[in-house]
Design a protein that fits this description.
The protein is of the alpha+beta class. The chain has one domain (6-168): 2-Layer Sandwich (Heat Shock Protein 90), CATH 3.30.565.10. The chain is 36% helix and 27% strand. The protein has helices at 10-27, 46-62, 121-131, 155-168, and strands spanning 6-9, 31-35, 41-44, 69-76, 80-87, 135-141, 145-153. Helix 1 (10-27) packs parallel to helix 2 (46-62) and helix 2 packs antiparallel against helix 3 (121-131). The protein is globular and about 35 Å long. The two termini are 13 Å apart.
Length: 169
């Protein structure tokens, strides 16, 4: 699948997400914090990137209790950018953690109050991150919270990969 990438400042993307989810977070009195260098950017398909981040943030809000905290942070590594969405939510049972990115997998049907979920959100998120040449992982402690880490190629790495795709094609 071909995706249309453009440079996106992560602080801007985080602020869009924060604005979009503000009402849901405030309804549960959840603090939604951002930590990111104003200059940090990635080459992404913005629509797909926002969908992936929205899936992660929606899950964090759903599984974080009243007066909890969710943070969106990003930092640059050698050849990648690390994005972390961490919450003080209920956590994911250890036995379920290896399966949460599988299609149709749901930790426990009783955890999903609306009954409208079918277990595709995290599988879609993983696919979107993979399309961008990145990876996604989870660290969770039941009763203490969950941290999802998305690693995307640094802007220079993404640009070089796109040039190679064009040469090969």
């Amino acid at each position: 699948m071909q995706i249309s990438r453009s440079r996106a400042l992560l602080i801007d993307e985080f602020e869009v997400l924060q604005d979009f989810f503000r009402v849901a977070a405030e309804g549960k009195q959840i603090e939604l914090a951002i930590s990111c260098s104003p200059a940090l950017s990635v080459m992404v398909d913005r629509v797909l990137f926002r969908r992936a981040m929205s899936n992660l943030l929606a899950n964090a809000i759903e599984h974080t209790p009243h007066r909890g905290r969710i943070s969106l942070s990003a930092s640059a590594c050698d050849d990648s950018v690390s994005i972390v969405i961490a919450d003080t939510g209920e956590g994911i049972p250890l036995a379920s953690q290896p399966h949460i990115f599988d299609r149709f997998y749901m930790v426990e049907k009783s955890r999903h109050s609306t009954g409208k979920r079918v277990g595709l959100g995290l599988a879609i998120t993983k696919s979107i991150i993979s399309l961008h040449g990145g990876s996604i992982s989870v660290s969770s402690s039941p009763g203490r919270g969950t941290s999802v880490c998305v690693s995307l190629p640094h802007e220079a790495t993404s640009t070089a990969a796109r040039v190679m795709e064009m040469v090969v094609a």
